[in-house]
Hints:
By secondary structure, this protein is α/β, with parallel strands linked by helices. The protein has 7 helices and 5 strands, in the order βαβααβααβαβα. It has helices at residues 12-24, 32-35, 42-52, 62-66, 68-79, 105-108, 121-135; strands at residues 2-6, 28-30, 55-60, 87-91, 113-114. It is globular and about 40 Å long. It starts with a strand and ends with a helix. 31% of the residues are buried.
Amino acid sequence: MQIFISHSHNDEIFARKVASLLQDQGLDVWEASNEIFPGDNWAAKISQGLQESNAMVVLLTPDALKSIWVQRDVEYALGAQEYSERLIPVLVDPDKTIAEDDIPWILKRLNIIDLTKYETEEDGIRRIADTLLTSS
């Protein structure tokens, strides 16, 4: 199983941390900063990453909820059979700035993992890994 991490460009450092910890749990992760290099057609590379993946972790931050690119990633995953029951929204909001109404209704219907409810971010990310491993 390959996991695509969808996130806002402003959340790239945290996305790298999530990718690294998921890889430590034995998962194959597609994360833009590891896959797109200077001179690459980034839209083509993202499209390829989406097509080659079969699970998605979408990092929900204030910036991600405003990003048209994150929205498009999620729309792709919702419409692709390969992602069935493998779209995992992850609430990353330590300052509690995201209101319930800010989260799209379709994502609320999924099992959102709220990283703020875990003692450490690492514990929450291990929960993401466990969810992905049991859905495969």
